[in-house]
């Protein structure tokens, strides 16, 4: 092709693009309205009487967000880490720091409104998301137990009215590959169906030394079947079946050592610890993506998730039933001392969970009143097995601990939520939930030598028990009151007082030991505003949360127990803003500031037993930084090409203040302030999309979680280093 021909072709392309821009300029310049179901009914996000964020599945796909932890850069006040064994979610400083996964979360996870009881379900449903709604602050009235920090609801795509088919392929560094196939459409006049198949594999980013062996590789596959039935009449139904299976070292703990072991502490510590086993080169310090192990980790995870929604709609009311079933199993094998020394080993920790949830709602809507009443029932059988081996303990005899527990959980609740329009601009929201939790655990804990010889109980150190039954139960009323006033169509304020609740339970590694429920009372004031005819959306809130019996983790040798801090307090504020500068350019930002601390709490540091019990009153809560900032620029350029009609580029940056990982003053207890940037580029068309991405461009080193043991080691899990890749999505 001659230079003249090239320039002529380029001029034609540019003129077509300019014409598209001019045509686009005729469209209204405003940010589209976002609908959410945070209050169990569809409504504008700007009218919600709570702090709620929504991220669309399309946006998550463009930003290569394939796991829960990727949401951290999208929502203020959200902190997420993945230890391999469990996803640890904190919202506004509240969540869980129990890395074994053998506890219920403090931020409730839901899939299509169905509660997920365990924090280790993995990326189930992520390849077929319509959107994710994140409700910050206690949600005890509408969502009940274990929502003291908030709620994350994954809402999946429904079967489509028209036939759709697509294939997606993603490739990234660390030899990462993923594929997704989707089919959706009508079966008959009233039935529609959707099928999704997915598979992925990665070598991971953590390496074992020497030899550079992959240390968190994994592979997984799964799928989804969904059916919808709808007519022009009263009844409609939705059914969804999800399956996900993962295995590999990535299913196990990905911690590394941040502090070198202390041989003297090992030889003078509790009697079951090994003696003089450490050498300077046996562990790696300060390297978040490298570690030395003498046992290669491995693990497996399997989840079946079934949900159904039945709806009867009449002129004055609507009746709906939401039911869910989950069968979840997880196992992990890993080197618990994270060194080349043969000190601790987890020879196959696993847990299984089978649960049923049922919710019945009756709701109605008039000119001045929106109302909802509901019944809820949940049952689960949870069976954790948390073994540990200490091969060199007792002068070489070795010690094996085998804690087995079967826990039956039953919860029942009645609740109501009403919103009354006092005037055209003022509305009052009242809600209340009465709930009852009951847990019955059967404990069996044994200690033996490596040869199977029983070890007698040693008070405060080793405790054996056989068929010990523990029962915990609690009844709670969690009310909410809120008031919203609309000064104009573009500016409103709201205030609320809400109560959250997290259930208590039994400690699975300590005979006869239980912990109390957690309760939070939170006050919140917020502003919802739009400016320049919806070219700008700016929402802000401030809150004050008072916690009673705050649940936190305590490590004591081979035991890891949940204990209650008498009190904790969190005050803070958040801002979310979007600015549609032009039809093509959108600027966005969210900011969180927080002051989270123990009001009254004492604990001893397992890595420093000589210090005894320490007064931690006033110390910052874990994973609750003083501030986080997200900023982003998103540019869309219309094209008039045969294959592509849009080019999109997004650049974003995340910044966090210092993060307390453990509330002590050790050298590895705080992650210093850090930040990282992500960039995304794509070409979109009616049938084909091409995307490129780079996450953590700077390959910033930062830790998200840490725990210590009585050998003076601090183990920590790091965020991922630089990740880059491409994606091809073809729609038939």
Instruction: Label the structural class.
Output: mainly beta
- Total of helices: 3
Globular, elongated, flat, extended or rod-shaped: what is the shape?
globular
Q: What is the C-alpha radius of gyration, as a whole number of Å?
A: 27 Å
* Record field, number of beta strands: 45
Membrane topology: Multi-pass membrane protein
Organism: Spongiibacter thalassae
Domain TonB-dependent receptor plug: 45-151
Keywords: Cell outer membrane, Ion transport, Iron, Iron transport, Membrane, Receptor, Signal, TonB box, Transmembrane, Transmembrane beta strand, Transport
Structure described in brief:
By secondary structure, the protein is mainly beta.
């Amino acid at each position: 092709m001659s230079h003249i021909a090239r320039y002529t072709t380029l001029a034609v392309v540019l003129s077509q693009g300019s014409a598209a821009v001019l045509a686009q300029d005729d469209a209204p310049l405003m940010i589209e309205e976002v609908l959410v179901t945070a209050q169990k009914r569809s409504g504008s996000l700007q009218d919600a009487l709570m702090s709620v964020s929504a991220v669309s599945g399309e946006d998550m796909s463009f930003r290569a967000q394939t796991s829960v932890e990727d949401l951290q850069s999208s929502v203020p006040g959200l902190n997420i880490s993945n230890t391999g064994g469990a996803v640890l979610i904190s919202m506004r400083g509240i969540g869980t720091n129990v890395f074994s996964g053998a506890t219920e979360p403090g931020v409730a996870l839901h899939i299509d409104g169905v509660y997920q009881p365990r924090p280790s379900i993995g990326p189930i449903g992520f390849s077929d998301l319509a959107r994710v709604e994140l409700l910050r602050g206690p949600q005890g009235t509408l969502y009940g137990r274990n929502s003291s920090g908030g709620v994350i609801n994954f809402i999946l795509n429904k079967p489509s009215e028209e036939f759709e088919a697509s294939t997606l392929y993603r490739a990234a560094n660390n030899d990462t590959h993923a594929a997704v196939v989707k089919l959706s459409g009508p079966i008959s006049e009233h039935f529609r169906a959707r099928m999704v198949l997915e598979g992925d594999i990665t070598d991971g980013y953590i390496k074992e030394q020497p030899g550079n062996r992959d240390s968190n590789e994994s592979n997984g596959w799964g799928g989804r079947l969904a059916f919808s039935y709808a007519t022009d009449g009263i009844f409609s139904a939705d059914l969804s079946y999800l399956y996900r299976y993962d295995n590999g070292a990535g299913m196990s703990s990905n911690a590394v050592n941040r502090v070198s072991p202390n041989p003297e502490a090992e030889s003078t510590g509790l009697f079951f610890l090994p003696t003089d086993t450490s050498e300077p080169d046996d562990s790696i310090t300060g390297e978040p993506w490298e570690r030395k192990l003498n046992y290669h980790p491995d693990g497996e995870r399997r989840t079946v998730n079934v949900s159904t929604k039945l709806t009867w709609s009449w002129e004055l009311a609507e009746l709906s039933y939401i039911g869910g079933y989950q069968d979840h199993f997880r196992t992990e094998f890993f080197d618990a001392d994270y060194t080349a020394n043969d000190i601790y080993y987890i020879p196959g920790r696993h847990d299984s969970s089978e649960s049923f949830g049922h919710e019945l709602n009756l709701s109605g809507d008039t000119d001045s009143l929106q109302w909802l009443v509901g019944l809820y029932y949940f049952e689960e059988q949870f069976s954790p097995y948390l073994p540990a081996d200490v091969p060199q303990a007792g002068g070489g005899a070795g010690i094996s601990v085998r804690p087995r527990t079967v826990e039956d959980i039953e919860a029942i609740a009645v609740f109501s939520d009403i919103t009354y329009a006092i005037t055209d601009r003022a509305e009052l929201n009242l809600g209340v939930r009465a709930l009852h939790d009951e847990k019955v655990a059967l404990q069996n804990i044994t200690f033996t030598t490596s040869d199977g010889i029983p070890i007698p109980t040693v008070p405060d150190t080793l405790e054996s028990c056989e068929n010990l039954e523990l029962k915990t139960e609690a009844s709670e009323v969690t009310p909410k009151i809120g008031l919203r006033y609309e000064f104009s169509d573009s500016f409103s304020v709201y205030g609320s007082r809400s109560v959250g609740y997290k259930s208590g339970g039994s400690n699975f590694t300590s005979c006869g030991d239980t912990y109390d429920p957690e309760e939070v009372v939170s006050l919140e004031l917020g502003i919802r505003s739009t400016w320049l005819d919806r070219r700008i959306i700016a929402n802000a809130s401030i809150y004050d949360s008072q916690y009673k019996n705050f649940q936190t983790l305590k490590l004591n040798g081979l035991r890891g127990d949940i204990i209650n801090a008498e009190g904790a307090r969190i005050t803070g504020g958040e801002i979310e803003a979007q600015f549609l500068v032009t039809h093509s350019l959108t600027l966005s930002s969210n900011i969180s500031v927080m002051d989270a601390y123990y009001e009254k709490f004492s604990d001893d540091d397992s890595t420093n037993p000589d210090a005894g019990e320490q007064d931690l009153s006033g110390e910052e809560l874990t994973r609750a930084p003083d501030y986080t900032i997200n900023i982003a620029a998103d540019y869309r350029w219309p094209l008039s090409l045969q294959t592509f009609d849009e080019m999109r580029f997004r650049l974003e940056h995340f910044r966090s203040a210092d993060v307390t990982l453990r509330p002590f003053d050790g050298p590895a207890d705080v992650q210093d302030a850090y930040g990282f940037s992500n960039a995304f580029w794509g070409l979109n068309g009616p049938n084909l999309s091409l995307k490129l991405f780079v996450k953590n461009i700077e390959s910033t080193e930062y830790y998200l979680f840490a725990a210590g043991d009585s050998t003076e080691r601090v183990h920590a899990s790091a965020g991922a280093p630089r990740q880059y890749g491409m994606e091809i999505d073809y729609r038939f």
